[in-house]
Amino acid sequence: MFPRPIEKSAPWVGIAYKVFLPIALILWLLPLIGIAITSVRPASDLASGNYFGMPSGFAFVENYSSVFKNSNIGWYILNSFRVTIPTVIGAVALSCLTGYALAVYKFKSNLFVFFLFVAGNFVPFQILAIPVRDLTLKMGLYDTMTGLVLFHVAFQTGFCTLFMRNFMKALPFALIESARVEGVNEFKIFWHIVLPLVRPAMAALAVLIFTFIWNDYFWATVMAQSADVRPVTAGMNELKGQYKVAWELISAAAIVAALPPVAMFFLMQKHFIAGLTLGATKG
Amino acid sequence: MAQTGVQPKPRGFWKTHQKTLAPWLFLAPGIAMFLLYVIFPIFESIWISFYQWDGLGPKTWVGLQNYRDLFADDSFYTSLKNNLIWLVLYLLAIPMGLTVALFLNQTVTGIRLYKSLFFFPFVISQVVVGLIFTWFYAPDFGLLPKLLQALTGSGKDFAVLADERYATLGVIAAGLWPQTAYCMILYLTGLNNINPEQVEAARMDNAKGLSMLWHIILPQLRPATFIAFVVTVIGALRSFDLISVMTLGGPYGSTRVLSYFMFEQALSEYGTAMGYGAAIAVVLFAIMLVFITIFIVRMLSQERNS
Questions:
Q1: Tell me, what's the pLDDT at A282?
Q2: What is the ipTM metric for this complex?
Q3: In angstroms, rounded to a whole number, what is the distance separating the alpha carbons of residues B236 and B234?
Q4: Please, are residues A2 and B208 in contact by the beta-carbon 8 Å criterion?
Q5: Rounded (10°) angle between helices B274-305 and A110-120
Q6: For residue A133, how many C-alpha atoms fall within 13 Å in the half-sphere facing its CB?
Q7: In this structure, which topology does domain B67-305 adopt according to CATH?
Q8: Residues 197-256 (A) with a CB less than 8 A from some CB of B
Q9: Please, what's the largest Cα pairwise distance for chain B?
Q10: Which pTM value belongs to this model?
Q11: In the predicted structure, residue B141 carries a pLDDT above the cut 80
Q12: Domain spans in chain B, listed from the N-terminal domain onward
């Protein structure tokens, strides 16, 4: 293990480490802690210049209920779910298929197709934006959930294919071969043998894509206009304009908007990190 | 295909060819979507960049005029310069992430929770990160001016984001926060998989501290470093959300980067210069392509070796 485990050092080093750890954490999260405290401050505190002292009261209920009552944020959060969940399902489903094709079959253009997905995944959004918006307009899907979801599914398929293909490559190939020898058809092999084995990869992708899409801002701005479609990221920026200096309300809204991916992360931590660190360990 | 006629049953064709046809059937929906929404639009954008177009009316062919205009536009150079600053400073996330990872790579009680909490900034959206830092920097009541005042006795009205000299740096600092967390998690995973025997052997040989890190640990962390490099470069060149939330490209356009400049010209409420916007996007794409090529070449060589 590197660095040397603290237990093997002098006792005072261990104590110093344990004391410093929470201090380092507080410093690291200071901006976030500040926002969290501000979100429960009574408005009178901010008016009287009490930004950092002890809050004069605990206005959690007032601030958070005011945000939900006086803005569309509840609606925006619902919109975010309506974009995110279908995208997760669509992208994971498509990439199970593409990943399987690229991991299991040998054919001439296999690597070319694979790297097409990988490379497409890295391009800047701006090179896609004008044609994608135009295409969506022509299909009559501009400013609709479907339009936004279709694009997200297509784009995320790039990353998901990379992930699925590498995961499936590591599966025991003998299993598939022996099924083939017994004459099981290719689709049954996929459905009954491979799919049950890739459940962990599906879970990892699902949490990652959930977070990516929930946090997307660019496409939310470019492809959605009306409040019926606008996800919470785009909505947040609008709230910032609406509340101007009412930082206790902006903070409360920010915390609410950040909550679903945070909850997702803590619930599915193992899968989340497995997904993000793909490729970080093997040469 | 000509052979189908000779086959006794139509099912026979599928039987004999299923191994060659099956991959394409599996690929079809994914490839169709990806071509339609990702690959074709790239070429379409390049094509649009040779036209003058307001997005609705007819397109007028102008050849390279959009590019000539672009190369004579001061805003373009400001954006390009800022992209470069982003790229260089964003890479700091890699050593910073490594430092945090080394600090946290212990087994004291509760360390798992600490690791998750350190990772926190990466999970929340950049819009929220942008808001948090806008508040952090806010003159008079933000945390940073307060800290400056407490430490140096002045700077209470120091407005990072309204000052052309510091605004871009302020936005990048906000971006480094989640990016460092990302690099940290990559390195923690890498450190977890380090060969303990090699480390022990090196300890026997009296290797420690920095020389151990440099000669024994970092070579083993190379895959993590590569991924950290990829995601950080892409993140730097994709920077958009933070600028949009924190400065709107201001003050006086001084925090624009190519991605935001393109948005202003072609996609925002007032921007209808599609051809010009497309030309900006093409330049950004060309820069990215350099890095994409490096990544693909390396991944391809790994693929061939395995």
A1: 58
A2: 0.90
A3: 5
A4: no
A5: 130
A6: 24
A7: MetI-like fold (1.10.3720)
A8: 211, 214-215, 217-218, 221-222, 233, 236-237, 240, 247, 250-251, 254
A9: 93
A10: 0.91
A11: no
A12: 15-60, 67-305
